[in-house]
Amino acid sequence: MPLTLTPLESPAALVARIKTWGRELGFQQLGIADTDLTDAEPRLRDWLARGYHGEMEYMARHGRKRSRPAELVPGTLSVIAARMDYQPESRATLRERLADPATAFIARYALGRDYHKVLRQRLQRLADRLATHIGPFGHRVFVDSAPVMEKPLAAKAGLGWIGKHSNLVHPQAGSWFFLGEIYTDLPLPPDPPLTDHCGRCHACLSACPTGAIVAPYQVDARRCVSYLTIELHGPIPESLRPLIGNRIHGCDDCQLVCPWNRFASLTTESDFLPRHGLDTATLLALFAWDDATFLARTAGSAIRRLGPERWLRNLAVALGNAPPSIEIETALQARADHPSALVREHVAWALGQHITRRNQPPAANTT
Fold it and tell me: Where is the active site (predicted)?
């Protein structure tokens, strides 16, 4: 549709106004992208052909609509891409939590309120403000909620480059941020993309606990801790369970080691701060939750999507990886007859790990 602007306002001036509104709404950066994803489309096809999406069949369900915005939302000409910081604590504190085998480690994006709701509401307010300014226009808001290639679009909009770990990286903000988009039928001038500055760094490949980053810019989700603990509905492969450590919902290791994250800022959004002490909770404390407690404590959280069964599955694996203790064995025994076969299987595995370690002879003294 033709833009309805004041006589003195150009499309570029309108974009500047949109970015100002975005900052007022709490976004750290906004950018404009066109809809040409011809570079990203073959990479997506190859990733799917390799089976790297695992059981995430929705990644292939919509055909070309994911890589062709105008087929998903007819009339789309431009995409307003936005990012919002969410890092709740320093990297030093985060490393301490991850290094403590008794602590339940949850990826930091999931500690607070569900980001889908926060970003979607802010983006809709931005769209409403734009409509008030120029009149009604065609648009649709997305926050990781539809077949949208949000990282390639954000990269085209100048919000960063896609790093070797497949996350978006900004040279002045690292990668601890959420992304959201507004598909519009407005012919807005796009922003220039940034160049890739990963260079020869392989820190994220080396740090991945399960070797899921199989090559630079290639992630096999079937080995990724985030996939195993969140997307996978069935049993976690036994060979990967010991590598998961104390991670019970997602993984932040590749972000922890990325040198660009030394420039990341802590979030100023109270909605993204930890709730119910989940940043410091122990494995045993969370394993003791019943279903009602899980539902109450995860209300409004991205963790709710797991459900009580997968929550206990993940905790059982982490407890199986923890140092042997009577308290852990007792807690696992209490769940040995759980109604869920999925929970029972992982509890039995965890108990087996503890029994095996308990029965191992002490290491010989070589001094």
Answer: 144
Strand partners, 83: 29, 179
Given 100, 144, 185, 196, the catalytic residue: 144
- Enumerate the known binding-site residues for cob(II)alamin: 66, 144, 168, 179, 226, 251-252
Q: How large is the greatest C-alpha to C-alpha distance in the chain, in angstroms?
A: 86
pTM: 0.94
Residue reference for tokens 């801790």: 225
* Bridge partners for 342 per DSSP: none
CA atoms of 317 and 277, how far apart (whole Å):
21
Is 191 catalytic? The answer is no
- Residue 142 CA to residue 28 CA, distance in Å, equals 17
Where do we find the tokens 């199986």? Answer: 320
d(CA 224, CA 195): 27
The annotated binding site is made up of 66, 144, 168, 179, 198, 201, 204, 208, 224, 226, 251-252, 254, 258
Residue list for the binding site for [4Fe-4S] cluster: 198, 201, 204, 208, 224, 251, 254, 258
What tens digit of pLDDT does each residue of 224-282 get? 999 999 999 999 999 999 999 999 999 999 999 999 999 999 999 999 999 999 999 99
Evaluate if residue 14 carries a pLDDT over 60: yes
